[in-house]
Amino acid sequence: MSLKHAIMVLLETEAGSGYDLLKRFKQRLGFFWQASHQQIYQQLKVMHQAGLINCQLDIQQGKPDRKVYAMTEAGHEELLAWLHKACKPQKINDSLLVKLYGGHLLDKSTLLAEVRQHKSQHEKALLIMRDIEQQYAQLQGAERDNLALPFLTLRRGILGEQAWLAWAEEVEMFLME
Amino acid sequence: MSLKHAIMVLLETEAGSGYDLLKRFKQRLGFFWQASHQQIYQQLKVMHQAGLINCQLDIQQGKPDRKVYAMTEAGHEELLAWLHKACKPQKINDSLLVKLYGGHLLDKSTLLAEVRQHKSQHEKALLIMRDIEQQYAQLQGAERDNLALPFLTLRRGILGEQAWLAWAEEVEMFLME
DNA sequence: TTCTTCATGTAACCAGTTACATGATTCG
DNA sequence: CGAATCATGTAACTGGTTACATGAAGAA
């Protein structure tokens, strides 16, 4: 399991509530790690019980109370241990490709419609990433240096999406024949 | 769940045992769908109970008996229904990127070692796919036409791996500084 | 003799999804 | 007046992993 470790990477630099983490997931790890709020809240509970993080209640006015979690020493050690051991290759389970593989059972226009639908989502994702890339390009000095590693993960997203779209071109070419 | 449908895509063209399916997964869908033998055997049991597939015992000499599964009419309908409805975008959970994102907690050489380890696996995968691509290139006529869709899924693998490796170059460049 | 292939499964556990559930504030 | 944001969770279910389990044939 790595949701635990993904949460710890996010908490390491700054404490936060379940809700905060949900937003950080979307903003920072969203292109390569997805987690629902249910998963996050439950995982935080488990991690708290295991002593990897501690929790402080933040009573707010006009807004619901927040449970602010922060890394403990034990959590920090666990994170470092995880970072040091090799992780296994990413598991891919792509149902669009399964569908395409069995696509002889469908007519080409149905397949084409679905591929195009996915394509528009990938295009959108690429645009957003391109935008963040532009912002990064304008940074300088320490700020830029600090974001070098997150930038590399963004580059993975960009190159990945470009490859996906190049592939979609080939598929469209075939399906339009 | 789509393991069910992946199995049906494989059974649609030819009946087979759990063991056969395991091999087909590796050979045909391996680059975009992974399933363990435990998953497959259990899923087949469930699908059999649900009437999507039927089962015939094949008693062999010198080898263990085989349970040969084949699609039923109900299974065929279910598969077509699945093929016709849109599938959601692929979920990505890539722990290597989480690690890289939190890589400031590690020294560059440790990160570099891990990236290179993954790189060699991706290179190997690409070589295998390239090889299959070559075999396809030599086909002609009906045989080639029948494999057009599987070939497109292979292309996805090839373009995906190339993009991964191009990204790895960027990462190495940064980590060797 | 050891490794690989053939061929099947169970059980316990861990991870993830879907549905259900609440309730205030702020913006248009 | 309705939608979005803030903020939290539980429960049931489905899907996937790890460990355990067996046993023969054939190749190196």
How would you describe this structure to a colleague?
Two copies of one chain form a homodimer. Chain A folds into two domains: 3-84, Winged helix-like DNA-binding domain superfamily/Winged helix DNA-binding domain (Arc Repressor Mutant, subunit A), CATH 1.10.10; 95-175. Helices cover 67% and strands 7% of the residues of chain A. The first copy, chain A, has eight helices and two strands; from the N terminus they run αααββααααα. Chain A has helices spanning 3-13, 18-29, 37-49, 73-84, 95-101, 108-137, 141-146, 148-175; strands at residues 53-58, 66-71. In chain A, helix 1 (3-13) packs across helix 4 and helix 6 (108-137) packs antiparallel against helix 8. The mean pLDDT of chain A is 95. At the A-B interface, helix 1, helix 4, helix 5, helix 6 and helix 8 of A face helix 1, helix 4, helix 5, helix 6 and helix 8 of B. The structure holds a DNA duplex (28 and 28 nucleotides).
